[in-house]
Known about the structure:
CATH topology: 3 helical TM bundles of succinate and fumarate reductases
Strand content: under 5%
Distance between the termini: 44 Å
Mean pLDDT: 88
Order of helices and strands: HHHH
Low-confidence stretches: none
CATH superfamily: Fumarate reductase/succinate dehydrogenase, transmembrane subunit
Radius of gyration: 18 Å
Helix content: over 70%
Shape: elongated
Largest sheet: none
CATH architecture: Up-down Bundle
CATH class: Mainly Alpha
Amino acid sequence: MKESTKWTLHIGAGVLILVLLGLHMLTMHMQTVLELFGLGTENVTGFEAVAQRSKMVSYMVIYILLLGAALYHGLYGLRNIALEVFPGQGARKAIGGLFTVVGLAFFALGTYAAIAAFTMEV
């Protein structure tokens, strides 16, 4: 994949993080804002509310998308920093391979956790 394509995906992942993290923050912290106006007495961070949300397909998909975007965005940025420190062609391939394997492993683990929470009996 060309570097310009990777950079475009990096920027796109940043935008996706902004949107999905905004949705997450709105869901998790809107209660505090509503309470300022005397509204919203439901506890959105309580176990029951979290367990109920974990059963929703939309939340599982959002968390997996957020995980993928955050991992790509962060590891691509870290890869670029590592490539500036170790500029050789051999280092480029080793660093790229290392970050790909680490990213896929973390993505698999996080996806497993999201699916396990979705299928968990409460």
